[in-house]
Design goal:
18 strands; about 400 residues; alpha/beta; FAD/NAD(P)-binding domain; single chain; seven-stranded mixed β-sheet; D-Amino Acid Oxidase, Chain A, domain 2
Length: about 400
């Protein structure tokens, strides 16, 4: 194929978000850059669900893909006590992958992007090698998994399985999702919670999630979901139909990712540091990066991704991860106490990495001080040791 202005390697959430945001900015008749989109898989169905926080009415380019949004959520502690959280001015937004892929497909067509479904063997500055052939590109955005520039001191997984269930009577409250229900049995290391996103009174996505070192077996996830549906809603297996299953694992780590591959070539998405280390949140950061990249492309500038999170947030992630992983504080107790002692909006922005330093100090003041102090000291010691092993070299941006 001919040379292109932009090569997007990986047609998942990160790569497609750039094209959706770019399409939004080019509808005034501006000429789009020439684009090649590389991925051996052409995604179309419901393989995942993305959720994020946003001020009401600011979904922007993604508005047509929004399935549901909520202004309130429910939080349940380990004893089963429920707390109603009003999110104003934020909304909790749910996007199904099928709707997002449809929106992205429309953007790909309007932009005239060429899909290349071969296997990518190599990405180097100025070129992408696919099935033994080089395609030259002025700029490259690569979302494929990549090793971090600096390894982690602490690593957990946010792993989950979700069932889209249908029942025969109105049972779910479509106006009130369950953000975290910690009344499920807790693992020896990390934390676990139930999660409910209702579409109607009779349909909901019900998930079981753990923050822990390793995934469970399929049988363990299914047993946890059956137990939760029985405990929370009084449902036996004969009382519901499972219409769809989705699962996955998101890295929660204080590893440092290098965004720049070389001249004009960058990593985006999780490979570029868009996954928040202490929460696993990714989608909102991908959108923030995609907006900046799209604006640069429209202006004819090099699409250089901005840092997904400030450096101070990477430090806070490392401290919180260490506290959870080492058991310095029970995870459910930590999160419930943050919501109990702060406005929900402040905690949600903190978890998403968009707070100001003043708000961060306010949140930190409500965290268990002894546990966080122990975690901070341990993190400093780990950083010193890692730096010594690397000969004193500093961390990449």
């Amino acid at each position: 194929m001919d040379d292109v202005d932009l090569a997007v390697v990986g047609a998942g959430g990160a790569g497609l978000s750039v094209l959706v945001q770019l399409d939004r900015r080019l509808r005034a008749g501006l000429r789009p850059p020439t684009i090649a989109l590389f991925d051996p898989v052409h995604r179309r169905g419901d393989d995942r669900t993305w959720c994020f926080w946003a001020p009401a009415g600011t979904e922007g380019a993604l508005d047509a893909a929004v399935h549901r949004s909520w202004s309130r959520v429910e939080l349940v502690d380990v004893a089963g006590r429920s707390r109603l959280l009003t999110l104003d001015p934020l909304r909790y937004v749910m996007i199904r992958s099928s709707d997002f892929y449809r929106l992205a497909e429309e953007a790909v067509a309007r932009l005239g992007a060429v899909r290349v479904t071969g296997a990518v063997q190599e990405v180097a500055p100025g070129r992408v090698r696919v099935d033994g052939t080089d395609v030259r590109a002025r700029w490259i955005l690569d979302s494929r998994p990549a090793a971090p520039a600096l390894p982690a001191n602490t690593t957990l997984l946010q792993h989950f399985r979700g069932w889209s269930v249908r029942v025969e009577r109105d049972l779910f409250d479509p106006d009130l999702p369950v953000l975290m229900d910690f009344s499920v049995p807790q693992p020896a290391r990390g934390l676990a919670f139930g999660y409910v996103l209702p579409s109607t009174g009779r349909r909901a996505l019900v998930e079981y999630t753990q923050f822990s070192p390793a995934r469970l077996t399929d049988a363990d996830y299914d047993a946890a979901l059956r137990d939760y549906l029985r405990q929370r809603f009084g449902l036996g297996p004969q009382d519901y139909a499972v219409e769809h299953v989705e699962d996955g694992a998101i890295p929660m780590t204080d590893a440092v990712h290098a965004v720049r591959i070389g001249p004009g070539s960058y990593r985006i998405g999780t490979a570029g540091g868009a996954t928040r280390g202490s929460t696993g949140y990714t989608f909102a950061a991908m959108q923030r990066q995609a907006e900046v990249l799209a604006a640069a492309l429209v202006a004819g500038r090099e699409p250089q991704p901005p840092p997904a999170y400030p450096r101070r947030h990477r430090w806070m992630d490392a401290v919180m991860l260490r506290a959870l992983d080492r058991g310095f504080t029970p995870g459910p107790e930590l999160l419930v106490s943050l919501f109990a002692r702060n406005p929900p909006e402040r905690v949600l922005r903190f978890l998403d990495g968009t707070t100001t330093p003043v708000d961060e100090l306010r949140v930190m003041a409500t965290a268990p001080m002894l546990a966080m102090t122990r975690a901070s000291i341990g993190d400093v010691a780990a950083r010193v040791t890692r730096r010594a092993h690397r000969g004193g070299r500093t961390r990449p941006a």
